[in-house]
Specification:
By secondary structure, the chain is an alpha/beta fold. It is built from ten helices and seven strands. The protein has helices at about 5-30, 35-50, 70-75, 90-100, 140-150, 165-185, 200-210, 215-225, 240-250, 260-285, and strands at about 55-60, 80-85, 105-110, 125-130, 150-160, 230-235, 295-300. Strands 3-2-1-4-5-7-6 form a seven-stranded mixed beta sheet, with helices on both faces. The longest helix has 25 residues, at about 165-185. It is globular and about 60 Å long. The protein binds S-adenosylmethionine. S-adenosylmethionine binds near residues 11, 18, 64 and 128. This is Methyltransferase type 11 domain-containing protein.
Length: about 300
């Protein structure tokens, strides 16, 4: 039996994997810098906070990647000044290039989420998207988030995989992988080498080691409360949209990107948006958060 990786190994593999993946990251995940992306980020922020977000003077993003959340929130005027942190320096270089292209100004700091080189009480908002599941010591990380928040400040994290949601979503993912050769033949798409969207085969092999958690809602509530945060809320997001999205992504990842027809991409995109609406309007209000693929948590610092 091999020993589980140490916290230091997890941080190291995350840095190397994300450094290698940065150049293809926006294309791989369909990150959009226009209206479509803005709508997604604002929708998730509203859901995480349980209503329309106020204006935040200073925000801190943890694991900001290429800037998806901070840059859209800046552009929408929801945050006035953004500091973006990430353990991967190459992700932050990509973020800076994206900010320059959008005409936005941000501060970037390459650091580990569990050890923020930032003064206590500096930010009205601490947030992140799809990052908590990469952090080896979440109790320590949440204590850092609480430390750098101003009294009365807000914290939210979205896009965290739920344990049950992840298991359920593995079924459409596996089914799509089996169907991939027939799907490529039908679309006359060539097969792409493994890892072509991850920065190459070697980087692709690291992917399995970067995700260290999938959560049940009470895990997230516990980390936030143990760090001294108040008004902790967890909700689930996306069920049908995720099954559909993961199945299509599993198919598309096996083909040369330029061979995937425009019509297919339209079907995948519009289908995802339609199912997202159905999830949002119907299922998210009625079913327990644990069933959904994504979990979001929000809380407040006393004061
Ligand atoms: C899945 S990506 C999400 C990026 C971005 N938030 C988004 O939604 O597009 C996870 C990010 O977390 C960063 N990360 C992983 N471990 C970290 C750690 N210990 N401290 C800070 N950032 C970390 C990675 O480098 C990567 O950029």
């Amino acid at each position: 039996m091999t020993a589980p990786p140490t916290a230091e190994e997890i941080r190291d593999v995350n840095t190397r994997y994300h450094d290698g993946a940065a150049a293809h990251y926006d294309a791989k995940w369909g990150i959009n810098w226009g209206e479509v992306g803005a709508h997604q980020v604002l929708l998730k922020t509203r859901k995480a906070l349980g209503g329309a977000p106020p204006r935040f003077a200073r925000s801190l993003e943890i694991g900001a990647g290429t800037g998806y959340f901070s840059l859209h929130l800046l552009k929408a005027g929801i945050v006035e000044a953004a500091t973006c942190t990430d353990i991967s320096p190459v992700m932050l270089e990509t973020l800076e290039a994206n900010a320059a292209e959008l005409g936005l100004s941000v501060e970037t700091v390459a650091c580990d989420a569990e050890q923020l080189p930032l003064a206590p009480g500096s930010f009205e908002l601490v947030m992140g998207h799809a990052v908590l599941h990469h952090l080896p010591d979440l109790a320590r990380a949440f204590r850092e988030f609480e430390r750098v928040l101003t009294p009365g400040g807000t914290v939210f994290f979205a896009g965290e995989p739920s344990r049950t949601g992840d298991r359920i979503a593995s079924v459409p993912k596996r089914a799509a992988s089996c169907m991939a050769p027939a799907w490529r033949r039908a679309l006359r798409a060539r097969e792409a080498p493994a890892g072509h969207t991850d920065g190459g085969e070697r980087n692709h092999q690291l992917e399995a080691s970067v995700d260290v958690h999938a959560f049940v809602p009470d895990d997230l509530v516990g980390f936030a409360r143990d760090a001294g945060l108040e008004d902790v809320r967890v909700r689930g997001e996306e069920l049908l949209a995720n099954w559909f999205g993961w199945a299509n992504r599993a198919l598309e990842s096996t083909a040369e990107p330029e061979d995937v027809p425009w019509l297919w991409r339209q079907y995948a995109f519009r289908g995802y948006l339609a199912l997202q609406q159905l999830d949002s309007r119907l299922l998210e209000k009625r079913l327990p958060p644990a069933l959904f693929y994504n979990l979001m948590v929000s809380a407040r610092k006393a004061g």
